[in-house]
Write a structure and sequence with these properties.
Layout lengths: L5 E2 L3 H10 L1 E4 L3 E8 L5 E5 L7 H21 L7 E8 L8 H16 L2
Parallel strand pairs: 1-4, 4-5
Antiparallel strand pairs: 2-3, 3-5
């Protein structure tokens, strides 16, 4: 099922997710997530200057968006509804390729979203 890909952009939405949401950590990034009342998942991205310069940060954001888009397209509708997910990149992510990040996010989907 192809789902709409939408972004979280407002700071109060980020704050709400960080404050009330649940937390998942991988060696390369953190995930904060909370159920939403929408018919699709939404993505928020946070990549600090600790990760690298603007070119590197933007590459990480593009990588997150693409992996999120691919996983949303191939995963069935979650049993527990849809989520707002905020990805926070760690500096260790910079040297990782697409497939490593894809596997980590796929593990998140399997463990958390599709219980």
């Amino acid at each position: 099922m192809i789902q709409k890909l939408s972004s979280i952009k407002k700071s109060h939405e980020f704050k709400t997710i960080f404050k009330t949401g649940k937390y998942y950590s991988t060696p390369y990034f953190y995930l904060h997530y909370v159920a939403n009342n929408l018919l699709y998942n939404r993505i928020g991205l946070a990549v600090s200057k600790k990760v690298g310069n603007a070119v590197i940060r933007n590459r990480q954001k593009r990588l997150f968006r693409e992996v999120f888009r691919l996983l949303n397209a191939q995963m069935p509708t979650p049993k527990r509804g849809f989520y707002d997910v905020v990805f926070v990149a760690k500096p260790a992510m910079v040297n990782q390729g697409f497939h490593v990040i894809f596997k980590e996010m796929e593990r998140f989907y399997q463990l958390i979203l599709n219980k």
